[in-house]
């Protein structure tokens, strides 16, 4: 997810400009053990390279998680320059931090509909295919042995959930062929990496989930080395109970690796006129707890990782879009919130 992008607008009903401060700074932090110690599967977060310069935040990362994902600096919007050359300074910084602290690195992402590298736009299909091949070989190869997995294709299902998206990739190489090819190229560059298909609203839009699963089945039938499915789980605190559980159960039905890939729970987008702060905090904790319990109930061999899209509220993309949101497990100061305790407690029920 890139800073400033609002394409993933949640259901907008009830948005309020009223400040939402559901937890006073004087409240004691919730009592938790480090997230990665509480869970029997890898725990991740996203980061931006500059955030690693903050010693307090760097310490929080090392204490709480076992895996890092670049929030946006491994996407072509950053890595492919207008002249077609590559830059890897920020991805390298994130990769080196992971290596130095014994963390897994998750690659995100190789093909994303929202991007159109200027150097690639005028290329005819054969040259575009060659550019994609060279890029994936260089990028995946660079982190081979450190990046354990990649989001090869990201958000391929349309906003309404009923079809596949069109993009520069599909226009140049075909609606389905560009995806199949990307998996083949990624596998060739690193045969040991787990290769994911990743999307959002799979929990709140059953029709989108069905389209997503059909795409995964089609890729598998075509021989694509797809080995995992990611549900982003960007949700609101008023998500109906059972939605995440139903989504993860469906996604796991194909027998592939499964990950919660970008979880956060918006409070601001769940606020209604008469909703109290205490109710919002409780709802947020319930949603996080359901996700923990639902993921824990999957077969152990399919549980790849559980990644939060940030740790501290102050660094969330939702906070950047709406300053009154508090969607993550730790507050602006890095203190654990009730949602963190609820998430850990629910792991035991999975």
Could you give the topology of this structure?
Elements: H1 35-38, E1 43-47, H2 55-64, E2 67-70, H3 76-79, H4 89-100, E3 104-112, H5 125-142, E4 147-154, H6 168-173, H7 177-189, E5 194-199, H8 206-221, E6 228-231, E7 234-236, H9 243-252, E8 257-266, H10 277-296, E9 303-308, H11 317-321, H12 338-347
Parallel strand pairs: 1-2, 1-9, 2-3, 3-4, 4-5, 5-6, 6-8, 7-8, 8-9
In short:
Helices cover 37% and strands 16% of the residues. The protein is of the alpha/beta class and 350 residues long.
Describe this protein's structure:
This protein has one domain (about 40-345): Alpha-Beta Barrel (TIM Barrel), CATH 3.20.20.80. The chain is built from twelve helices and nine strands. The protein has helices spanning about 35-40, 55-65, 75-80, 90-100, 125-140, 170-175, 175-190, 205-220, 245-250, 275-295, 315-320, 340-345, and strands at about 45, 65-70, 105-110, 145-155, 195-200, 230, 235, 255-265, 305-310. The protein has an eight-stranded parallel β-barrel with strand order 1-2-3-4-5-6-8-9, surrounded by four helices. α8 (about 205-220) links the parallel β5 and β6 (about 230). About 50% of the residues are buried. Mean pLDDT is about 95; it is low at about 1-25.
List the defining traits of the structure above.
TIM Barrel, 16% strand, alpha/beta, eight-stranded parallel β-barrel, 37% helix, 350 residues
CATH class: Alpha Beta
Low-pLDDT segments:
1-26
Sheet having the most strands: 8 strands, parallel, barrel
Oligomerization category of the chains in this entry = single chain
Based on secondary structure, the structural category is alpha/beta
The third-level CATH topology is TIM Barrel
Helix run count: 12
Q: How large, in whole angstroms, is the Cα Rg? A: 19 Å
Determine the fraction of residues in helical runs and give it as a percent range.
25-40%
Q: How many DSSP E strands?
A: 9
What overall form do the CA principal axes indicate? globular
Topology as a string of helices (H) and strands (E): HEHEHHEHEHHEHEEHEHEHH
Mean pLDDT: 93
- Strands across the major sheet, in which order? 1-2-3-4-5-6-8-9
The number of distinct structural domains comes to 1
CATH superfamily: Glycosidases
C-alpha termini separation: 29 Å
């Amino acid at each position: 997810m890139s800073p400033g992008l609002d394409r993933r607008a949640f259901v907008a009903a009830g948005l309020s400009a009223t400040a939402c401060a559901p937890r006073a700074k004087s409240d004691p932090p919730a009592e938790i053990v480090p997230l990665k110690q509480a869970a029997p599967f890898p725990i991740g977060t996203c980061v931006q390279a500059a955030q690693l310069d903050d010693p307090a935040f760097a310490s929080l990362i090392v204490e709480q998680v076992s895996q890092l994902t670049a929030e946006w600096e491994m996407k072509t919007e950053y890595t492919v320059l207008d002249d077609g050359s590559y830059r890897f300074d920020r991805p390298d910084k994130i990769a080196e931090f992971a290596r130095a602290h014994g963390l897994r690195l998750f690659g995100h992402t190789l093909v994303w509909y929202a991007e159109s590298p200027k150097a690639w736009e005028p290329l005819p299909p054969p040259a575009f295919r060659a550019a994609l091949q060279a890029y994936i070989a260089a990028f995946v190869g660079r982190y081979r042995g450190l990046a354990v997995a990649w989001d090869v294709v990201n958000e391929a299902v349309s906003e309404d959930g009923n079809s596949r998206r069109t993009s520069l990739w599909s226009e140049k190489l075909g609606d389905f062929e560009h995806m199949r090819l990307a998996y083949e190229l990624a596998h060739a560059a690193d045969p040991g990496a787990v290769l994911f298909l990743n999307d959002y609203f799979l929990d709140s839009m059953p029709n989108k989930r069905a389209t997503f699963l059909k795409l995964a089945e089609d890729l598998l039938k075509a021989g694509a080395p797809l080995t995992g499915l990611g549900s982003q789980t960007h949700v609101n605190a008023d998500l109906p109970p059972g939605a995440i559980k139903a989504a993860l159960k469906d996604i796991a039905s194909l027998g592939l690796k499964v990950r919660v890939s970008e979880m956060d729970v918006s409070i601001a987008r769940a606020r209604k006129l008469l909703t109290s702060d205490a109710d919002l905090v409780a709802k947020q904790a319930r949603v996080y707890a359901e996700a923990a319990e639902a993921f824990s109930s999957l077969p152990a061999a399919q549980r790849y990782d559980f990644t939060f899209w940030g740790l501290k509220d102050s660094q969330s993309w939702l906070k950047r879009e709406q300053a009154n949101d508090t969607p993550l497990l730790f507050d602006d100061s890095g203190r654990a919130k009730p949602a963190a305790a609820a998430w850990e407690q629910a792991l035991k029920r999975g």
